[in-house]
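[Automated response] Your request has been received and processed.

Submitted sequence:
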Amino acid sequence: MTLAQQFAAYSEWRTQLSSGLEAFHRWLSDNELSDAQTDLRIRLLLEKLHEDRLQVAFVAEFSRGKSELINAIFFADYGSRMLPSTAGRTTMCPTELMYDPAKPASIELLPIQTRESNVSISEYKRFPDEWTVLPLDIESAESMQEALHSVSEVAHVAPEVAERFGFAAGDKESTLVRIAKDGMVEIPRWRHAIINFPHPLLKQGLIILDTPGLNAIGTEPELTLSLLPNAHAVLFILAADTGVTQSDLAIWNDQIGAPGTRKTGRLVVLNKIDSMWDELKSEDEINAEITKQTNSCAWTLDLPAEQIFPVSAQKALIAKITNDSALLERSRLSDLEFALSDELIPAKQEIIHENTDAEFSDIYMRTRGLLESRLSGLREQLDELTELRGKNKGVVEYMMGKVRIEKEEFESGLQRYYAVRSIFSQLTNKLFAHLGIDSLRTLITTTRETMGKATFSRTLSEAMKNFFSISRANLQKSDGEISEILLMMEAVYKKFSVEHGLKLGTPHGFSLIRYRKDIDRLEYWCDTHLNTMFQLMMIEKNKVTQKFFEEVAVQVKRAFERANRDAESWLKAIMAPMETQVREHQIQFKRRLESIKRIHQATDTLEDRITELVHVENSLVSQIRSIESVAQDVQHQLNVTQRRLRSAA
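Generated structure:
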């Protein structure tokens, strides 16, 4: 199964899972078993499935064949090169290929001049008027190719302008761009490009990120702080004839293989092996040379040779378009596609499976527990009324008194529940005192003041380190408070289940470890790109401060915002079963008391009331069977389809 077929199967699995969840939600609404919290949780699950995206980033220096590799893997069925692929520098700015049905087919281009504002690309995405939009005529291949060449456009500016945009200009090898004889500097015309194209794979949620060479990666921190770390797969492309060059190694060490970065879904492609196809050599000799170069690259990058994939993207594209199976086999692209689909799709699906399964199971068990609680209470009513058959008025009065006493005992026990609510509220406030955005804003303000007043590089360095130290400490304290909340709720769940027969199960846990890893990764980037002796000595103090807050601190804030949203959802979910069960228990006591009162006032209604409750009992049993059936459909999509997809992989 090719990557395209595997991704199509994954997309179908996601669609079927969404349909199952929607059917479950409709069943809850039809049976009046939903509430605001349940509606919100299911809606969030569906939104995550509908908005799920699979991001694949292609990273390399110039002239390594990135665009051709994208064409060969994803767009050969289109019958021509979708992305421009010629000798030299083709993709001059980071380019995202995606599909948003709410927008027409187009290319959105962010001018390079926006670099002066120090506002992030993600922030600019909220302001469409800042982008230049070119329409895409998807019916004309020539028109499309002409429009797509815009990502290759350059501008010629004075050296001081280039420096303002982040391109250090000079005559030395170490500078990013060179000053031409006329004194001008060639830089990209655009800062970022978004191609909205209705390709089948893009329609299914694939996002492809095509990055330029070292120049753009070095001058656009958002690539390394956000876009690349969040990609589900990163393909690092080398040229077979040169192997790992110094600039290749710099990108690998700084951006892809650096400590704290993800290790899964990171593959190395040794492209252009057709340059080693020598007609004067045997096939064995050619393969031996390719193996030697593969082993050399593996040694340099400190990777197993199995993670290096020698291919010829150009020959693979030709082979796919002309249906030349022999040439496709010789290009070795299939090996890369299988590895990518084997590692990428199942890993992504596993994340969706685990998140959906945990949340859905909790909603299902909570709803089923509610139905079983109703059934248990109803059967208790039936037993009480059945015992009253043929009894005198005094027995009925005794039974009424007994239920009233039980109700009073339960309400007395509710004092503990209200105390739990109070303690829960206190612990929640304590949690958000550390995890909340207000706390982070205070830290950002004090750090900015310290860095603004600093006269020495050491003060700047210590302020940045202190910022990360306090951020990490706040996450660790928050984790401790989350554990305290979980332990308390486990004890309360157990106590109320034993004493009052509530169907509560076990509360599910929550961890902030993913956000701690984000902070670790951001600190490593800061320590290697900003908080270094060279940077602190060479860059003006106010520029270091500006870069720290507009490139690093903003990413830390986003991590805390995500942590806050997840923590709030968890807190609502952990308290909701308790609130629902207590409310249901109160309603059951009220109904039992009312039933016996009615019998006390008119004993001839006893049989009618028993018949009525038997009918309700049958209805509840039917509901429990029905919810089991609906839930099994969702579980079937979660488990059976997943195994089928893994088997296909």
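Summary generated for your ticket: Residues 392-597 form one domain. The mean pLDDT is 82.
If you did not submit this request, please reply to this message.
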